[in-house]
Amino acid sequence: MVKLTTELIQNSMQYMNPCRDRELDLRGYKIPQIENLGATLDQFDTIDFSDNDVRKLDGFPLLKRLKCLLLNNNRISLILTNNNITELGDLDPLATLPMLKTLSLMHNPVANKQHY
After folding, report:
1. Co-location of 66 and 10 in the same domain
2. pLDDT tens-digit map of 41-80
3. Which locations, inside or outside the cell, does it occupy (predicted)?
């Protein structure tokens, strides 16, 4: 596993993607934890963390420019606690996530439904 260091951020591929957004490519390093993103100096619209070992979405400084965060093929559990999910049907798109192991819906209206 590779630690997400300032050096890794500075040495990773940075480019203008087809949507004309500045993108930082951090794919495939097997990064276990998001950290040191302050080193980006908020220069990127998109950060690609695909194909890593990220387990939690934390360690984010204020990145006002960031519009898109790509996190496919990581080890993230879906935490939807304290949102406004009202119907079980709202969760149907999650059926396409075969590797999803944990789903937290605490403090959502759907948790009060019969047979939840």
Report:
1. yes
2. 999 999 999 999 998 888 889 899 999 989 888 988 777 7
3. Nucleus
Q: Are the C-beta atoms of 69 and 49 separated by less than 8 Å?
A: yes
With H, G, I as helix, E, B as strand and everything else as coil, classify residue 79: strand
Q: Is 10 left (phi over 0), alpha (psi -120 to 50) or beta?
A: alpha
In a domain, 104, yes or no: yes
Residue recorded with tokens 């819906």: 105
Collapsing DSSP states into helix, strand and coil, what is residue 69? Answer: strand
CA 107 to CA 79: how far, in whole Å?
11
pTM above threshold 0.90:
no
Quote the CA–CA distance of 57 and 79 in Å, as a whole number.
10
Scanning 1-116, the segments in alpha helix (DSSP H) are 6-11
Q: Domain check: are 51 and 93 in the same one?
A: no
| 38 and 86 belong to one structural domain | no
- Same domain? 55 vs 12: yes
* Same-domain pairing of 87 and 63: no
